[in-house]
Amino acid sequence: MDTTNTTKVPNNKKMIGLGRGLGALLQDSDSVNRSQGKPSPYESISTMTEINVNFIETNPFQPRTRFDEEALQELADSIRAQGIIQPITVRQIGKDQYQLISGERRLQASKLIGMTQIPAFVRTANDQQMLEMALIENIQRENLNSIEIALSYQRLIHECNLKQEELGERVGKNRTTVNNYIRLLKLPPVIQAALRDNKISMGHARALITIEDHEVQIKIFRRIVDEDWSVRKVEEAVRNLGTESDAQVLRKTTLPKQEIRSLQFKLSSMFGTKVSIKADEKHKGEIKIPFTSQEELNKILEVLNYTA
After folding, report:
1. pLDDT digits over 94-136, tens only?
2. If both were cysteines, with which of 17, 88, 168, 219 could 103 make a disulfide (CB 3.0 to 4.6 Å apart)?
């Protein structure tokens, strides 16, 4: 039996799965405003309806521009087997014209498997509310990196006129957590890019934020990447900045990895065999020059000008 167009309407409890922030925007405000005798800005035009996918425009305020193709295909396969478990949410902008509020992955996945109709809740929302809902839904994705979250928080504060306390309530975070993310945007662009690309962790970044001098931030950041520093090591280096000069702190490190690799390459070329070098924080270590035959040993000894 073809289950492509099968739909399952969730009960009210399941709708909370949208997340505390988005769920509050789409549902809680209806009941609160009704109890206060106010018209809800998110009032539902109809409980649910089937809409032709070709009548639905993407959300122009959608902050998310790229979708993981493999994950999208997995969702499409799930919809093919189970149908749409959670309807999308749209607003009507004209006759047979709708604009997506939430559920872009579900809409794209449905199109992938050739669905022509999709279940949707139709609600009213102005442009600012559209932006707010799109940003909050984006934040609630599990695979967002720290910089993406920070940028979304910043947009919610600046473009939706939310205070940090209000934002925290929307996304289910306390003010300190929200502030820690936003502070990441004060880091130099090169460090933000590394955090975005998972070259360093948020723990590394939070330690670097406490350094006022951007040049010192970048110098320590380079050490983190080149020498695979732990968060604890970064925190120790930052603490030492208060009692020692920047130069002293930065000297108390191992040789940069690129220097070791360069030296290994030069020695390997010189001896004609793969040379390995290890060094610790006190610049103690060893150089290994392997050989597999008497001929290779003689060549090494010749380079060293060794005579028995």
Report:
1. 888 898 888 888 999 999 999 999 999 988 777 777 777 777 7
2. 88
Scanning the chain, the segments in alpha helix (DSSP H) are 12-15, 20-23, 29-35, 69-82, 104-112, 127-139, 146-159, 164-171, 175-183, 189-196, 202-209, 214-227, 231-240, 246-251, 257-271, 294-303
Distance linking the first and last C-alpha atoms of the chain: 86
In sequence order, what are the residues at sequence separation of 6 or more whose Cβ sits closer than 8 angstroms to the Cβ of residue 199?
225
Which residue in 50, 69, 74, 104 is the catalytic one?
104
CA–CA dist 219, 214 (Å, integer) = 9
What is the token pair recorded at 19?
Answer: 């997340």
Is 104 annotated as catalytic?
A: yes
At 49, give phi and psi (nearest 5°). -150, 165
By three-state DSSP, how is residue 72 classified? helix
**What residues of the chain score a pLDDT lower than 70?**
1-47, 61-66, 138, 140-143, 242-258, 280-283, 306-308
Check: pTM over 0.70? Answer yes or no.
no
Rounded to whole angstroms, the Cα distance separating 304 from 218 reads 40
Spatial neighbors of 55 by CB under 8 A, at least 6 apart, are 96, 97, 98
Residue 98 amino acid letter? Y
Per DSSP, helices labelled H in 25-68 are: 29-35
Where b means 16+ CB within 10 Å and e means fewer, 220-238 reads bbbbbebeebebebbbebb
Torsion of CA 264, 267, 271, 275, to 10 degrees: -20
C-beta neighbour count of 241 within 10 angstroms? 18
